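Good morning C.,

I know you're traveling, so I'll keep this short. The sequence:
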Amino acid sequence: MSDNLPAIPGMNNTVASSTGGTGGGLGFLALAGRTAKLAASALFLKEGMHLLRSHMEANSTAALRLAEMCGQAEVEPRFTSMIEDVSTALTGVAEASGDMVNAADSVDTDARGFNGAHEQEYRPGYEASNGSGVQQAKPGFYRRTGRRN
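The tokens, ready to paste straight into the viewer:
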């Protein structure tokens, strides 16, 4: 299944570890890639929610206009009332999509902040270990043994 997100370096079907092998997603590039994908997904969600909000507001306005025309045409009041209820529900969806925009914006900001902090903290070690030519332990090894690297 395609997610229509742009390709993100370090992310593919088999998640790469900092040693270049597959490490179950614990490696430097894999984590950076996943959080970048999270930020990109949040931006796509935000864009979609803006479109949804605009669409629901337009539909709500159209429903109100229809209810007014039904009132002028002396349509049975219960049907006019149902159309007004639809307009109210559509307005609720528009407002909720605005809440989703705020949540997606927060996720995007937090993911980017995490990526920046992660990059600053771990990039030097990642570069040093890759440049050393020495095979490194799998990600998480030192945590399991109680040693710190």
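Safe travels,
E.
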